[in-house]
């Protein structure tokens, strides 16, 4: 006991794509491949990612590179004006 996960199992988890962030200590990591999440699959309860909003500057799971699955995406700049309380 007292050994870190890295030393206990003698391996380091790395992202499949080196441009994406490595898993954090609170991230759930699967050792088997997940079913494809890009396309809708009602049988598996997968809603797909078409039409979802993504974050163009994020390298996480909310980033456009991952979420748009290579389909491309449109960017939109929105200016929000609010009154002071």
UniProtKB/TrEMBL annotation:
GO terms for cellular component: extracellular space. One of its GO terms (biological process) is canonical Wnt signaling pathway. Pfam families: wnt. Its main location: secreted. Keywords: Developmental protein, Disulfide bond, Extracellular matrix, Lipoprotein, Secreted, Wnt signaling pathway. It is found in: Secreted, Extracellular space, Extracellular matrix. GO terms for molecular function: cytokine activity; frizzled binding. Ligand for members of the frizzled family of seven transmembrane receptors. Belongs to the Wnt family. This is Protein Wnt. It comes from Ceratosolen sp. ex Ficus arbuscula. The gene is Wg.
């Amino acid at each position: 006991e007292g050994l870190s996960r890295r030393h206990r199992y003698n391996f380091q988890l790395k992202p499949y794509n080196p441009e994406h962030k490595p898993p954090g200590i609170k991230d759930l990591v699967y050792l088997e491949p997940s079913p494809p999440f890009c396309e809708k699959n009602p049988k598996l309860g997968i809603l797909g990612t078409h039409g979802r909003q993504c974050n163009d500057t994020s390298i996480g799971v909310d980033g456009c590179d991952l979420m748009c699955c290579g389909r491309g995406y449109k960017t939109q700049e929105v200016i929000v004006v609010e009154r002071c309380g």
